[in-house]
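Researcher: Next entry in the queue.
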Amino acid sequence: MDSPTPEDPHGADRAGEDVLRDFEVAEVGDVTGRTLLHLPCGTGLGTLSWARRGAAHVVGLDPSEQAVETARALAADLGLTQDRAAFVAADVYDAAEAVPDRAYDVVHTGGGALRRLPDVERWAETAAALVAPGGFLYLVEPHPLADALDDETGSRIVHDYFVREHFVRDPWTDTGPDADPDTDPDPDPDSGGERAHPVGEVVTALARAGLRIDFLHEHDVSPVPRYGVLQRHEDGCYRFPADRPRVPLTYSVKASRPA
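Model: Structure for this entry, 259 residues:
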């Protein structure tokens, strides 16, 4: 999950930075010797973080040609050849035809990606098809409940949780893990822009695609200060103040394919 900064949005000197959050590392587990597909990968910092953690072969896919070129340059700075880290420019829906292998031990996806995709079932079928027997898909997304809250304090429900119309981008997709305002394209105009997909819709789509849901976790952390009241902690994540009620800001899903 890439986290570009204003000072250095995608500079080569960040090639060795580990941008994975603690709960992601704990939930995915040891990737030593495993193959991993990251879609979309943004500028590749998250993908390369998994490579540095021991993944035998990582592949990143992103619809932005510029982001992919940046990712390739970062991999070269780390001395990683294509047999260790490869990057492909393609639409997420076309991933099965675009990536070099047909099955991966881990398919890591999310980071706001679903907000740009109008067809969750098609996404789930595509991603599930790339999970090897005995492997799993790991998804991290902004929690759609957060889209129903007011932008100032995140304390009042002011929008419809089940809304299907497009909405204005929020800080996650403007400056969040897989977004880079210099490289990421605008949402597909035919899709109606970005939208929230209820958690139930996403989990059901993965189950229908043939994966077994191992867990659904909700987290009180955000990678960006989505609301002004959020406070940054030592782990780099933002949380509500301790003296106020919390709501989930992020959720994660692990869905496996039986061996």
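Model: The helical segments are 22-28, 45-52, 65-77, 95-98, 120-129, 171-175, 199-208.
Researcher: Noted, moving on.
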